[in-house]
């Protein structure tokens, strides 16, 4: 879970032009907005609305990125996974390792049946990582809010078969 001490670094992460390249999200105006966002993340994590992790370097405790489960739906026992990582850490397996841990947590601890991921159609590294972890593109579905996204899903039965 983030702390208010993470606000400055999260401000930099959430305003990084490479991170925002495939995310339709407005940059933060200032670090105060980051403090407000972190406070909201803390409250939403404490209430169980989201599960949010800071990805840190094992040796320096440096914030490298974030990953979360959110948008929980009781009807089909689904959740959405979201993630972001400073570009200098791309391609090093860091997010893949974090994703594996979060997928295991989602199925073993939260008992979701479906994990969904929404990623930009042109974000090939993100799409490859999702596919590596068993997510399947939902060709018949569209993201009404962000038409440039494609939707991936990993079902509990598919996850258990790949273990």
Task: Report on this structure.
Strands 1-2-3-4-6-5 form a six-stranded mixed sheet, sandwiched between helices. Strand 1 (51-56) and strand 2 (63-73) form a beta hairpin. By secondary structure, it is α+β, with helices and mostly antiparallel strands. The protein has helices at 7-14, 17-20, 31-47, 94-110, 124-132, 156-162, and strands at 51-56, 63-73, 78-85, 114-120, 136-137, 149-155. The radius of gyration is 15 Å and the shape is globular. Helix 1 (7-14) crosses helix 3. The chain has one domain: Aminopeptidase, CATH 3.40.630. The protein is built from six helices and six strands, in the order H-H-H-E-E-E-H-E-H-E-E-H.
Sum this structure up briefly.
This protein has 163 residues and is α+β, with helices and mostly antiparallel strands. It is built from six helices and six strands, in the order αααβββαβαββα. The protein has a single domain (4-162), classed as Gcn5-related N-acetyltransferase (GNAT) (Aminopeptidase, 3-Layer(aba) Sandwich), CATH 3.40.630.30.
* Beta-strand fraction estimate: 25-35%
Q: Which sequence of strands runs across the widest sheet?
A: 1-2-3-4-6-5
What would you report as the Rg, rounded to the nearest angstrom?
15 Å
CATH architecture: 3-Layer(aba) Sandwich
* Helical content class: 25-40%
Q: Indicate the mean pLDDT.
A: 93
Low-confidence stretches: none
Structural class, by secondary structure, is: alpha+beta
Q: End-to-end distance, in Å?
A: 27 Å
Helix-strand topology string = HHHEEEHEHEEH
Q: What is the overall shape? A: globular
Biggest β-sheet: count, sense, barrel? 6 strands, mixed
CATH topology descriptor: Aminopeptidase
Number of domains: 1
Tell me the number of helical segments per DSSP (H or I, 4 or more residues long): 6
The CATH homologous superfamily corresponds to Gcn5-related N-acetyltransferase (GNAT)
Instruction: Tell me the name of the CATH class.
Output: Alpha Beta
How many β-strands, per DSSP?
Answer: 6
């Amino acid at each position: 879970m983030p702390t208010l001490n993470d606000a400055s670094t999260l401000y930099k992460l959430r305003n990084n032009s490479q991170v925002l390249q495939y995310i339709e999200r407005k940059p933060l105006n200032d670090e105060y907005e980051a403090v407000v966002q972190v406070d909201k993340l803390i409250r939403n994590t404490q209430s169980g609305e989201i599960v949010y992790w800071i990805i840190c370097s094992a040796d320096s405790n440096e914030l490298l990125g974030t990953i979360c489960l959110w948008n929980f739906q009781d009807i089909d026992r689904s959740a959405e996974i979201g993630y972001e990582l400073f570009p200098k850490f791309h391609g090093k397996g860091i997010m893949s390792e974090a994703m594996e841990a979060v997928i295991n947590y989602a199925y073993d601890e939260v008992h979701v049946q479906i994990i969904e991921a929404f990623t930009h159609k042109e974000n090939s590294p993100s799409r490859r990582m999702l596919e590596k972890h068993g997510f399947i593109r939902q060709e018949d579905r569209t993201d009404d809010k962000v038409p440039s996204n494609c939707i991936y899903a990993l079902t509990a039965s598919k996850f258990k078969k790949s273990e």
